[in-house]
Amino acid sequence: MSAYFSTCYKTARAVFLSKVQAAAPSWQASFKHPLLSAQGEALVLDAVWFGDLNASKLLVVQSATHGIEGFAGSAIQSAWLDKAALLSEDTAILLLHAMNPWGFAHLRRVDEAGIDLNRNFVDFKVLPKAKGYSVLSKALIPLSWQPDALTKADKTLADYRDAWGERLYEEAVSSGQYTHPQGLFYGGTTPSWSRLTLAQIAKDLQLAKRKAVAIIDVHTGLGDYAVGEVICDHPPASLGVNWAKRWYGAAVTEPFLGTSSSVPKLGLIDYFWQQLLPNACCFITLEFGTGSTENLFNVLRADHWLAGQATEGLDKTLQQKIQQDLLTHFYPADKAWQQAVIEQGLVRINQALEGLQQV
Q1: Beta-carbon contacts of residue 162 (< 8 Å; ≥ 6 apart)
Q2: Nearest to 66 by CA among 113, 119, 103
Q3: Burial (Cβ within 10 Å: 0-12, 13-18, ≥19) of residue 190
Q4: Which fold has domain 2-124+185-293+329-356?
Q5: What dihedral do alpha carbons 275, 278, 282, 283 form, nearest 10°?
Q6: 52-65 pLDDT per residue, tens
């Protein structure tokens, strides 16, 4: 099953579209990003629908909300297309391939403006404040990446962790911030291209009128290695949580209850769907673990530091190491990991489709 995994965005999209063509969709559209890849190629969010366009029950499978994490989601989507069974009556599936195509193509988690799409879904009339991040911002991305500067920065982070505890430290770093454009987990100050495009897709397809919608957003980088954690950010005891537990069983974890590897976050794409379908959706993040949270933070720190540097005179060996470390964390070359991703991804898709029949 590792054959479904590609080496770059261009290849991943080509594989996906070849599978789409063979499966004969009911509808498809390609939304072109205003920028191009580093090689001058088009960047596209592809939306593909299978089943009755008027179906009242819908499963949405999203990939590359965090660009570089798109390899796993794309592979799962392509694998499903190869193995897709006949959909039940009044049920459809919508595949959204490369929610953040710029990040996918450029091997970064953020988009072209440095925005983390999964922190971008807030009401921009009043931006949330992230006091913890402001305290740590200079240590998270120091001016220099030399050993002495890193040692000093790491001590600041360690002191904060010791003083406040691991969970509050993780919330301070990753829950979302809106004041440091070059920083980690930056949510932006306006809706991103991806957010606007998703809203347009939802409007064009009249998704708000559906009876029940399940959403699976595929991510990598957090949690136990090769385990696809089913993270549910719906409010505790809500309809979305109840559906998730009924469909996915004991695998469901809840950040708001402290049972997840993920802490509560601001501006998640989940909240778009919850607002669109407040009483008719079940959103889960299918998060495949690749390494420790500490390593996750460290590779992102390095990536954001690198993005802020002028390329002229930059140490090429250091640059290549930072880029490779980032890719390795979010996209392991381990065939066993890739096999596990496909197997678990297909199981969750089948569970969601079966669950929709119970609604």
Answers
A1: none
A2: 103
A3: exposed
A4: Aminopeptidase (3.40.630)
A5: 10
A6: 999 999 999 999 99
- Residue-wise pLDDT for 258-294, tens only, equals 999 999 999 999 999 999 999 999 999 999 999 999 9
Residue 309's region, left for phi above 0, alpha for psi from -120 to 50, else beta, is: beta
Q: Which of 326, 287, 299 is nearest to 73 (CA)?
A: 287
Q: What is the 3-state secondary structure (H, E, C) of the chain?
A: CHHHCCCCHHHHHHHHHHHHHHHCCCEEEEEEEEEECCCCCEEEEEEEEECCCCCCEEEEEECCCCHHHHHHHHHHHHHHHHHCCCCCCCEEEEEEECCCHHHHHHCCCCCCCCCCHHHCCCCCCCCCCCHHHHHHHHHHCCCCCCHHHHHHHHHHHHHHHHHHCHHHHHHHHHCCECCCCCCCCECCCCCCHHHHHHHHHHHHCCHHHCCEEEEEEEEEEEEEECCEEEECCCCCCCHHHHHHHHHHHHHEECHHHCCCCCCCCCCCCHHHHHHHCCCCEEEEEEEEECCCHHHHHHHHHHHHHHHCCCCCCCCHHHHHHHHHHHHHHHCCCCHHHHHHHHHHHHHHHHHHHHHHCCC
* Contact indicator for 175, 266 with CB cutoff of 8 Å: yes
pTM: 0.98
